[in-house]
Amino acid sequence: MPKKRLLLFFSLIIVSVALMTYQSNKGAINPLRLFGYPVNAANDVIHSLSSSVKEYFKKIQLRDKENRRLREEINGLLMEQQKYKEVLLENTRLRELLSLKENERRYVTAANVIARGNDRWANTIVIDRGRRDGIEKDMAAITPRGLVGKVLSSTDSYSYILLLNDINFSAAVRLQDSRTEGIVSGTGLRTCVLRYVSHEYEVKKNEMVLTSGLDSLFPADIPVGSVTKIIKKGAGLFQNIYITPFQDSTRLEEVVIVGR
């Protein structure tokens, strides 16, 4: 028992010495520090939250900036794609015109459509070729699809083309299958009229119409259009036959001029 008391006594002495040594090194314990711990912890939490919020909004700004950059890049790629598509379409049209040049012995020149005619009473277009390119009045204007019209007038640098659907336009034609002849005239609309075909001749729907060459203006066998409507009723001598041209005049970009 005395040994246990002696051991406890020495233990207390050791603890007392240790406490005195700690206080001498660290100084006296300040009770106010005990209240500062929660405040400092709260400040640390607030600072951490503030940093997190700032970092979040910074990421949003960076993401928005990246999205804007990507949208601009996509728009640029779309524009390049459209340009590439236009080049492909132009190359296709030019190859068709080149083929027409090689196969058409009456070829004069190819031309670009640069404007619509300013005469409200006539359906005309303006092309960038004229007399110095060999173009003369009444020459035919065609595309790989078919007849477009004829040269109405020309200067040294450009020419006016009277279109197939103009009310003042006419050309001698024949039906491909029946070989029946007639005159095609414009109506001012998309369709044209095939005139002077008697009731005694049978005309089939979708039959192709070609130039006959009998008017001394247009070379023979130029495709004009196809029969879309036939009206045989009435007391007149001739059928009412409507034709839709192969070449839509509202989509013209290039034409070829051919001589007689």
Overview of the structural elements:
The structure is a single chain. The protein has 260 residues and is an alpha+beta fold. Helix content is 37%, strand content 27%. The protein has 2 helices and 12 strands; from the N terminus they run H-H-E-E-E-E-E-E-E-E-E-E-E-E. The protein has helices at residues 2-26, 32-103, and strands at residues 107-116, 124-127, 140-142, 147-154, 159-163, 170-175, 181-186, 192-195, 208-211, 223-231, 240-245, 254-258. Strands 1-2-5-4-3-12 form a 6-stranded antiparallel beta barrel. Strands 6-7-8-11-10-9 form a 6-stranded antiparallel β-barrel. It starts with a helix and ends with a strand. The relative contact order is 0.12.
Features of the shown structure:
elongated, Thrombin, subunit H
What's the short version?
With 260 residues, the chain is α+β, with helices and mostly antiparallel strands. The protein contains two helices and twelve strands.
